[in-house]
Fold:
Amino acid sequence: MSDTEEDVIEGSDDEGEAMTASEVLKKLEEAWITERMSPTLECHQSELVDCMLDQINQMTENLKRCKKHDFRLAIHKMEIDRIRYVISSYLRVRLEKIERFSHYLLEKEANMTDETMAALSPHEVAYAKDYAANLESHFQTLVLQHVPENLRTFDSAKMSIKPNLDSYIFFKVKQETPGVLIEDDTGEGRDEELDLQEGSQHLMRYKPISHLLHSGAVTLI
Amino acid sequence: MLGEKALELIKELDRSKDGQLPTFNEDSIRMVLEEMTTLFEQNQRDVNATVAGDVRFFSGVHLRHAALERNKRCLLAYLYNRLERIKAMRWEFGSILPAEIRANICEPEVQWFSRYNKNLAAYMRSLGEGTGLDLTQDTKPPKNLYVEVRCLKDYGEFEIEEGDIVVLQKNTTHYLPMSHCQHLIRQGILEHVE
Structure:
């Protein structure tokens, strides 16, 4: 990021947060890449999104005070456009997944015990609920109420789409993690233990490393 | 053959190109539903016979039940995949569907669409602690602040930032800020000149 970028941001960063705007952006970009690569929905980052949206609004305000033909104006505007693209692309990918896996995600949400592991933000929960209800009522009106009695239910466990947690992903190790257990799903007992070295890159099934992704020890590429 | 009509429905949808939507095939759906009712009645008869002690017909019950399940699945798949296409159009054309699409969808689909719209709008408004963000914008990574566009239809006056007004007439080209003319490009009023 350019130095001039920092000037605009610094004036507005008065919330006393531990992170600077560029760190927030970096985290958001990482979350964006992860979300695009992951087969399922990752934990929501609505704080980062809200913070960054607030930033670009303030940057836009600040730019209004600049002289119209200042050449820095174009650079800043470009930067704002870029950030806005990252945010909307990130949220679009999430929305797509929320729609596709709505039943699965809502069920997971209902059984969730740890608040910090929530995949959906409160707004996203509301969205998913309405989406699922809308879909079911559509099925109900057109087909389900006309079929024989014993087939009238919509069994979401059987009929809804679930993410494929066994799909393969590329990832890069950020923190050294020794002794990661990779279980053999074929049941032949060929479990493996793997030491993940910092900076190394791997291609592996999503499931065994999903907890490392949540803790931030690895990142998807 | 059992379930043939249902399969035809799916095939019909599959054959139409991506992004197109064939007319809602109410007749076929009704025929599948009728087939299901018949199968169900036959099954009930045979189940009653089985309960009464005659087990000769019981494998038929299994077969018909499988056909029923399959028909139900095909019908729901038909509905779901149509909704997926309608949804894709929401993101492409905005909340008002083009007339030729509207002619091909049925009333419950219209209702579904308007509820989907409402839900999406409510979600987008809630972003950024209530300031809102239109996710249907910025679909491509920005390369330039300004883009060269050609006008395909007469549009009239169009205000870009701070009171600058351009008149968009057919076959004129302009150099406009990307963020302002995206939706006009999507509506087919402007064309992006590479």
Chain A touches chain B at residues 49-50, 53-54, 57, 74, 77-78, 81-82, 84-85, 87-89, 91-92, 95, 99, 123-124, 126-127, 130-131, 134-135, 138-139, 141-143, 146-148, 150-151, 154, 159 (CB under 8 Å). Residues 71-100 of chain A form the longest helix (30 residues). The domain at 168-220 of chain A is CATH 3.40.5.60 (Ribosomal Protein L9; domain 1). The two ends of chain A are 21 Å apart (CA to CA).
